[in-house]
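Q: Entry one of two.
A:
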Amino acid sequence: MIIPAALLAITLALCASVFAQEPGCLETSTMGKMAGATSIATLKARKQEAGDSYRAQVIYAARMLEIDPNNKSAAELLLNLIPKDIDGPQQKVWLELDELPQCPSGNLSHSDLMPLFRLQYHLPRLLARAVLLVPDKMQDYVTYAYISIQNPESDYAIQMQKVCRVKHLEFVSAVDKMPLDDKKWFVAKIFNPDGCHPLAFPEQ
């Protein structure tokens, strides 16, 4: 059956109208395009469209580090964005970069969502890379381990292994500076600096 041109135009207009009424969908789509950028120039252009929200900064810094693995500015920015509170709004962003609850219709393309899912999965690895570039942020990096592993899919402790081996003195010093109770929990449940052994593993 051939759909009349007028009816098709009305249908498309209605779909566009529904999408336009969902700012959460538009925002997630914009973030997805930024997460999927394949060049620095494209990433910067899409960052201008995405704005300066906390989520936009996280996605920008993380994706920049993927595109340019030796970018110390991106590394420092990502480390500065590490959440400080296990139940705070910043940690919620790290756990759900796509913010699907903000788009109840689910009117999002696969090409926009998949880069966000991939980037979120890579965050522990990217933080490990970042702190190797900016070891002055080791204390923040080590301290975040407790918050990160609250996500059962996080491989944060596994990613710490390389950091511990490459920057062992800085890593051990950061662990030693933790409050005593936090340090005991860290070395018993999360990561043993002696030999650089991860103790917390993602659920399979």
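Q: Entry two of two.
A:
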Amino acid sequence: MATATFDLVDQDSLPMVGITVRVYDSANATLLDEGVTDVAGSVDFTLSSGRYYARFYPTPPQATVDSPRRFTVIDPGVNIFDIVGWVFKHPTSPYPGYCLISGYFVDAHGEPLRGQIIRLIPQWDPSSLAHPAAESGPLGYFTKPQSVSTDEDGYVEFRLPRNMGCILATIAGYEDWSVEVGTPDSSWCDVVDFIFPQASALTWDPAGPLAMAVDDEEEVEPLLLLSNQMVLDGSTDKLAVEMLDFESSDPLVATTRVHAGNVRVTAVAVGTATITATPKPGVFTARLPEQTFTVTPLSVVVT
């Protein structure tokens, strides 16, 4: 028996992580083994000498690897197979001050969703904006609604001013449903995250630890990072606290409650506790796989 190693990289020679590799017999009919590429883009199989077929099943969005591929294992010998695939990477806006929003839509069967119309309706008062292709010169108004649609591959891209909101987004087929969104201060954004942002990470201001005496109260500002790269802070946007449930690891030491867009911590007894948070049920749209939400615990020390 010999070890057969598959090393998968993308078009930029970066490891392709999480790709399922299945090994079939010489007739490409019987499944013999399967594995998933690790953080280095590698996966190993133990096989006897002979010819086999490998099939690749990418899980990253819009990743492709030519499949199936025939390979031969020799024993003794070195059996390392270098495979180059392709992974979609968001394009960036060439114009300062603008965010290029792009991405793919699929239907319930995982097939490209062609001709999906997205209507964008600005909700702000008329604003003067520099023409994106000019360093100076004419100014225009971005106030009229615009519609964009996906192409044959389910792909769409459009450009919006950075750090602008709010925009009312409506998806064709769901005219009775719309959502207020904003553009991040970034050169790019995923279209799904743009329309359906998820809670990504939570930090605090001050970051802690909080040194408190019994009966003291202190307010901390939650800083909620969304998957669209925008940050909601309690002082300017109460959604930061309305989207989350806050809890103390030990309510006998410290308790929490929402107050004026911030989190008020009350010291109850001597000891230590940590303040964490979880997204409220039903606030964010369902996503597969689920969005990872990273919380930096806020430490509270009561003396």
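A: Comment on entry two: The helical segments are 191-195, 239-242. The chain has three domains: 2-87, 98-196, 200-302.
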